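User: Okay, second chain of the day. Same drill as before: sequence in, structure tokens out.
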Amino acid sequence: MSASAQIAGMALDQANDNFGFYFNHVSFAWQSFTAGTNGHLRALQAHIYSTDGADWSATLEIREGSGTSGTLLTSQVIVGDGVKQQCTFVMEKPVRQTSGDVYSFVVRNASTGLTVRASADLYLGGRSHNNSYDYNFKTWVLASDWSEQSWRDTNFTADSTVIATAEQLAQFAWLVNNGTTFAGKTLALAADIDLGAHYWTPAGGDSARFNGVFKGAGRSISGLFIENPGVPYQGLFGVIDINASVEDLVLAHGDIRGGDYSGGVVGRAYGEVWRCRAAGVIAGGSMVGGVAGCTEGILEGCANAASVSGASAVGGVAGLARGGAGDCSNSGAVSGANDVGGVVGFANGDLRRCANSGAVAAHEGERTGGVAGSCSNVSLSECTNSGDVGGPATVGGIVGDPGLGLIDRCVNSGTVGDAWVGGIAAITGGTIRNCVNRGAVALTTPDGVVGGIA
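Assistant: Same drill. Structure tokens below.
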């Protein structure tokens, strides 16, 4: 591929350069393709223009599989004219693709008849709506990182306090990763930021930690893409230090693949996390959460809507909460092996007024709960669960294994199932008081143990 063919920040993935046929007056069309790499589909190029020379609009969809019946991954309005034949459509929401899997781009609801350049059936990775022809097209994937200097704002310095662009946020992360702690400083978002043009490098790691105050001010960050499976400390922040805090930040859409200590907002927080929200997809190893992988300090008022998956200590809001949590909620699906909880996977501190409505599932292992997978002799008070909870063993509507702790004024209304299950807790060596179970409790194995409360 020549340098002139490169789209800035992207790499060519699939291409069919052959042509010799034109579909005319088309209002609906599709072409399937086989992904060549693991990554995020960022742009599509195709020869599409109006047959009558008029300006046009249509809906572009990306779907799983071949054709129009697969799962819809993203949809957006596209526009063009009758002059510029090859069009580049940049995805408003980049789509994760898996090497070897088949996807389709679909154009429908065109405002006027379109002409689409095609070729004989020479592209081996897919087909169009006409078995005899393939479209002339290219797909492009993300291939650059915000940490590269060409994408950063190098005028943003250690003395700056306001972040209003993606470039400034990238420069902030670079400064943290190169030794600037921002101790004693307060930084604030001044605008919503879309990071979807490039992959994200987390701000900070175990040896370079952010130690200031970061105020999201209710602003949102979208398009946070991290593709580092097996690598620890993944999130918008990798690690924040003991005097740091992250407040009022909204992760509107994140797609994170990491290792241990992975979370949407922060991988590991020695400091405080206040009123942060996350949505998207978070996957990692152990200590994985929608908002934070692991919190050592305060975790208050946070909410997660992302789907979260990992190995052990997996929670909707936090995988491991050493300082406990208060007024936190989860509505995303949570899955893992051991210590899997709707709000917190494993808690070393008290959980207060936390709520889960997402489905919680352990595919192997033990200690699964609607609010917490397991706890270390702490209290759970005024917590609720309405999501379905399932796992092979030690499954509770509120908590799988609370240790010797106290469960007080908690309510479960979700279905609890599989083996060794309880409406509130699967087992307990501590105290359960003033708790109510309204959910169904069912066994799927003949040698299991079941209890309405514990």
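The chain is about 5% helix and 50% strand.

User: Thanks, on to the next one.
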